[in-house]
Structure formats: structure tokens, C-alpha cells
Write a structure and sequence with these properties.
alpha/beta; disordered C terminus; 13 helices; globular
Length: 391
């Protein structure tokens, strides 16, 4: 009888299957879609990138004249390695670097994904205006922001099912907060959902900072330029007027530290970028940001965060649809879903409190035991403890 694989072997298989499928099916679509509206030379270079990946050719990267910080060690991490052999995290950043080089982003500022990101912006703004009227509380805004993470323009297929865990962690009392950080992920429907959350928080007296990228990475990542375009398009709607009012008085602002677009894990996150002292909640959006927060590991999903080599420098509340192999710190899991062969298409929506390095493991259960504190009280206890350690 064949030996059944253990949890560690299943995690390695999950990672390998995801990488192989992504290289074969998703990467060619991303490169092809980026060609729209570009000059012939940029298209030629994008196709050359695709041929190199298909051939599994050794990667080459030179950042000597790359003006963006945080990329300095990338050549040592990728040069001479093949896409199928390098850590997938390093391969991804190499590919998007090559795509930005193809459009000479550092000279032209051309976003190769701009048409994909902005095509339905007016529709998304209309949706946000409608949702803002229905979003009355901070918990409502957090739930909307979580649900909106399913809108990822880099995905080529829609979720095949719907599961969720950790939702009770969203029941946070706004009077405990003085600052909310939203570390943004996808532009479009997700980002306008984040802005609805930001408006609701700001109007309750909470300083709200949305952290976006300097570089257009991973197809749909929100950049400074995207924010500028959105603010110019909001129009005379309730959403536009309430957003503009909050931006004008400074209760909503946008920040873009080079770290957010750099190929680095969150153990190097400059914690002061998120604010210090008590009453700070930092919401981490999306699958890639979760991967960066814990070192892009593929481990048994029950592995405690405390057992991981990489932890963020500040406590984070992760809101994401699971779209990769990287899952850890799970106490509860959706009933009927395999813990080893789970869907990685966004079908599972997850809320998790990720403690900072050196912090105790948070209680992230969606179901309290008979002698445990209620979920809301547990969430607030984690928030206060985590924030106070940032000083």
C-alpha cells in the first residue's frame, strides 16, 4: 500500500502544482493582455519575456540604473536561476520588473496595465456610491472591503464556490481607534470598496491612511497615478463629495512608501509608516500582501504564525480571498473543505489577525468556546495589545 503523504509533503505539492499551473496558463494571459495599446517595441519585448519563461531560460536582472529602492538584492536572488527553479515570489517580481522595463516605466511612467484597470472605473464608482448609502458602521465597511477583494484583475477565472472564516474579527468598536491604515491591493471595485470603508471611518473621527504603490505591479495593484485618476472622476455624487470632503480636511490621506512595491517581506516593513501608539488598526488587503507578511511559505495550514521565520514588524488584520498556496495560522476552517487540497481561486474568504514579530499568537477563531471571551472582546484585546507594542 502506498504511503499517504504527510501535511508537509502536501504543502510542498500544493506549492508545486500552483506554480506549474500559473506558469503554463496564467502568465501567458497576463503578458498577452498587457500588449493592448502599447508601442511595437514594447510588445516585442513582452513577447520575448513570454518566450523566455516558456523555455524556462535562466533569468537575468540588472538594477544598476533602477531608481526605485528595495530592489538592490534582486539580481543575486534570481540571476542564473530558471523560472521553474527559483522561489515563485522572486520569479514574479523579476517578471513584472521586466514588463516595466519593456515600457521604460522609469522614463515614460507608462502603466502596462492601465487599460485593464481603468476600463470599468465609472461603473465601479457608481457601485461605490450605491454601497456607501448602505454602509453604516465600521464593521459594515470592513465586510465590504473584504468582499471586494474577490475583484482581482490578474485572475483568469472566477471563484468556483464560496466559503469564509474569521469574520467575527471584523466586529471592531470604532471608539477604540484613532487611526486606520488600509494597505491597498487591487484597483477598481476593490479599491473603491476600500474608499467606502475609509469614508465611514473618517466620518467617525478616525484618521484613515490608504497605502498604495509607486509601481504598477501584479496587473491590478493600486498606484499613486490610479488614485489621481480616480479622484478626477468621482463627480458630483455622494461618494465623490464625501470622499473629497474627507481628503480636503485631512481625515483621509494617501501614502506611497517605496516598500509597498519592493520585493521584500514584511519583516522589513518600516513600522512607523503605519503610526505608533495605541488605537492603530492596520488592515492588510489581498493574497500577495499576506504572502509578504509571513515569508511566502507553503506549510500545513494549522502552522502557528509564531512558528514562522518571517513575521511583520506591526500587527496586521488580513482581509483576503485565498488565491495561492500560502496559508498559515488557521484555527477554524470551512466545513467540508480540504485542509490540504483547497481551492486557490478566491473561493475561500479569510480574515486573520497576524501578530507582529515577538507578539503572542492572536485568538482567531470564528467560534468561541464556552469559557472564552466573546469574539468582539478578543479582537479588541488583540488590537490594543498589538498597537501598544509599536511605540
Amino acid at each position: 500500500m502506498a504511503k499517504r503523504p504527510n501535511a508537509e509533503e502536501e504543502a510542498r505539492r500544493r506549492y508545486g502544482d500552483f506554480v506549474a499551473k500559473t506558469l503554463k496558463t496564467r502568465i501567458p494571459v497576463i503578458l498577452k493582455n498587457a500588449e493592448e495599446g502599447l508601442a511595437d517595441e514594447a510588445i516585442r519585448q513582452l513577447r520575448a519575456i513570454g518566450r523566455a519563461i516558456e523555455a524556462d531560460a535562466p533569468m537575468v536582472m540588472d538594477v544598476a540604473d533602477w531608481p526605485f529602492s528595495g530592489w538592490e538584492d534582486m539580481p543575486a536572488r534570481v540571476n542564473g536561476k530558471r523560472p521553474s527553479q527559483a522561489p515563485f515570489f522572486d520569479f514574479e517580481y523579476w517578471m513584472y520588473f521586466r514588463m516595466l522595463r519593456a515600457v521604460r516605466f522609469d522614463e515614460t511612467g507608462i502603466d502596462p496595465f492601465r487599460l485593464t484597470k481603468h476600463r470599468d472605473l465609472d461603473k465601479h464608482l457608481a457601485w461605490a456610491d450605491a454601497e456607501l448609502g448602505k454602509t453604516k458602521s465600521l464593521a459594515d465597511g470592513l465586510k465590504l472591503s473584504l468582499d471586494a477583494n474577490a475583484h482581482d484583475l490578474s485572475q483568469i477565472a472566477k471563484p468556483g464556490s464560496n466559503h469564509q472564516f474569521g469574520g467575527t474579527l471584523l466586529d471592531i468598536e470604532p471608539t477604540t481607534l484613532r487611526r486606520l491604515n488600509i494597505i491597498a491591493d487591487n484597483f477598481g471595485a476593490e479599491f473603491v470598496g476600500d474608499l467606502v470603508l475609509a469614508i465611514v471611518a473618517a466620518e467617525q473621527g478616525i484618521e484613515t491612511v490608504l497605502h498604495v504603490k509607486q509601481l504598477p505591479m501584479f496587473v491590478s495593484d493600486t498606484t499613486v497615478d490610479d488614485v489621481t485618476i480616480l479622484l478626477d472622476r468621482t463627480g458630483k455624487t455622494a461618494f465623490g463629495e464625501r470622499l473629497s470632503a474627507a481628503v480636503r480636511v485631512g481625515t483621509i490621506r494617501f501614502a506611497s512608501h517605496p516598500f509597498w512595491a519592493a520585493p521584500q517581506f514584511f519583516d522589513g516593513l518600516p513600522a512607523d509608516e503605519l503610526g505608533t501608539g495605541s488605537g492603530v488598526l492596520s488592515v492588510l488587503k489581498g493574497d500577495l500582501n499576506f504572502r509578504r507578511a509571513i515569508g511566502d511559505v507553503s506549510v500545513p495550514i494549522e502552522t502557528p504564525f509564531a512558528d514562522l521565520a518571517v513575521r511583520p514588524t506591526a500587527p496586521l488584520l488580513s482581509l483576503r480571498s485565498i488565491k495561492s498556496y500560502c496559508v498559515a495560522g488557521v484555527a477554524d476552517w470551512p466545513a467540508g473543505v480540504s485542509r490540504t487540497d483547497f481551492p486557490m481561486d478566491g473561493s475561500i474568504v479569510a480574515v486573520q489577525a497576524i501578530p507582529a514579530a515577538g507578539e503572542p499568537e492572536p485568538i482567531a477563531s470564528a467560534q468561541s468556546s464556552s469559557d472564552a471571551a466573546p469574539p468582539l472582546r478578543r479582537a479588541l484585546r488583540w488590537l490594543r495589545r498589538g498597537a501598544s507594542r509599536q511605540v
